[in-house]
């Protein structure tokens, strides 16, 4: 690039970024409202099913011994896992200065918050008497009861609420300068709302100075948090003695699976967004390639963990552990295990083929398979393990019911309602961070490498 | 401060902005406000030369320590109030029971993170209810602004410096 004006058209200018991001907030077309109708319909079913369950009792959810934890906890762990990619992209990749994160991190962060909000519904749905959910909170009360802080379930309450709070804070901090950009392009009541939301941000040197420092510190905090959340979730299982759960492998195994499924969900959301909003200049094949590689790597690590899981069960010499494994591999739920192995171990292998990593259709297909596979992974950990523990008289088979299946499908509607709402009111592409990766406007460019 | 005048130069390029800043500092103008749509290294390098590191980190440290201490107190004190024997271990261990480390870590991150944001808001003088007079909406889009706060009689020379450095627009 010899002169600033002869910039190739593929590289947007600062002004282009503002224009293109603001364009995503225009009044949406009929396709959007059609989607919203489907989402709204599913969400209605969700609330009807939940009301029915509260009225009739937990039997409606197919819960009976031995599977007192079934699809709700499966889906809870699934959504918490989805919530990992956002903070991984926004914090870990920020600290590693991976510049490709800039154009996807906003959508990924929003996804994280909404996924954790979706996950947060499940302990309440699962607990049955939702109006007693406040029992989880530690506060001085007339019952003289305190939570057992030695229980992983209470750690989970702390880990997830901290994760939700810090992810939200991180998200809001990143939004402040962007909302200021929206404010300056808006008029009327929108302008007033944006002015309030951005706290009167002006982008002075003093503001940026503290902002950048604060952002770096938040990223440094969020990084160990990402690793801790799913580790704590995994200890909900690993600390119990149930064969198939009681393993030191669980924390890294869960964290890796979470990143794997999280990236798949990022692709499922970002690929249509890129297509409908014409964001190809910002979300380039390079970004798709980087995400595909991360899916491939975490998928291979997961395959290694599956092998370890089988090996340690066999090598432990523990009869009950081996019996549980054998039952899982050969009996009622073997099809679920096969689905998981296919989706998580085999399907990402196509990403070894370079053209597949930049092909949106193949990537979308692989991501959907990965999401299915990761849901089944959690199912395979929870349901068959509980169904085949130490005593034959407590063995049992769990069969899904219409109520719990509806609630699980409805949770996707809840998630998509939040996400589809978000992309229409807030910038789903970070104005500031995308600009930061562009060459800054120079009058006298000597070597084009500023 | 009725005796100060603010002169604003609007720039379209980073290198001209940096040139103006260098020139102003060489002439002894240090009361500057620089508006940028993004943080730019070249501009930061000029401005941060004689400034201490942002004090946000002190907020972070204090917040984290408060979080750590309150989680320690919460877990230890409630264990004394509601004495549950778990795994045959004493209700409280000193200095800390290993299971409580998880709670302490989470509370440290929570309090530290929130304190960091409070630090950013307080030190960045946010929220601002009214826009400052030298702000221009283009500064969140693709323009850079240098506002010089100086004595009224020096306004003319500041205008000269800004215009000479390559400002698109200079106004008071």
Q: Please trace the helix and strand order of chain A, writing H or E for each element.
A: HHHHHHHHHHHHHHHH
Strand order of the largest sheet of chain B: 2-3-1-4
- Tell me the number of structural domains of chain B: 2
Class derived from helix and strand content of chain A: mainly alpha
Largest interface: A-B, 66 and 72 residues
> What are the low-pLDDT stretches of chain B, counting only 5+ consecutive residues below 50?
none
What is the total tally of β strands of chain A? 0
Order of helices and strands of chain B: EHEHHHEHE
Q: Tell me the span between the first and last alpha carbons of chain A.
A: 11 Å
List low-pLDDT spans of chain A.
1-9
Major beta-sheet overview of chain A: none
Mean pLDDT of chain A: 89
Radius of gyration of chain B: 25 Å
Mean pLDDT over all positions of chain B: 88
Please, how many helices of chain B? Answer: 5
CATH architecture of the largest domain in chain B: 2-Layer Sandwich
- What profile does the largest beta sheet of chain B have? 4 strands, antiparallel
Please give a handful of descriptors for the protein shown.
heterodimer, A: 450 residues, Formate dehydrogenase/DMSO reductase fold, 16 helices, 0% strand, disordered N terminus, B: alpha+beta, 4-stranded antiparallel beta sheet
